[in-house]
Amino acid sequence: MTKQHPAWSPYDNNGGTCVAIAGADYCVIAADTRMSTGYSILTRDYSKICKLADKCVMASSGFQADVKALQKLLAARHLIYQHQHNKQMSCPGMAQLLSNTLYYKRFFPYYSFNVLGGLDNEGKDFSNSHCQLLSFFFPFLVIVNFLFLFHFREGLCLHI
């Protein structure tokens, strides 16, 4: 009889809840601050919200190492865009960049669940979410997620 080992996985789901609510001229993004693995709470003070541009914010849950790698890559590409065009990237442009980045990594995807929101150039709301598995099959699909918020202490409101 051979001893069976649990299957090894390069991913760990650190949990989390992120939500975005958009209105006519505002977008509110909120996320919880707890990071856990399995039944262990690693910290209760971890920000899942990242400001990508002046009017664009991304909240991400999932495997936090992949989330940080994705945030760094988007920040670097936004900086390159700023140097080439001498202006901030718009929120719909950032959503397209996020979609293209997730599609590019579709064979070994970032294990992150992303909600991107903010204001477009006209000051209108823009919110959109991306899942790595659905981005594998439908890279330009906009998914509307209604997530239950049990515990959140952090939020960001963009309003003109």
UniProtKB/TrEMBL annotation:
What are the UniProt keywords, alphabetically?
Proteasome
Taxonomically, the superkingdom here is Eukaryota
Q: Which organism is it from?
A: Citrus sinensis
What name appears for this protein in its UniProt entry?
Answer: Proteasome subunit beta type-1
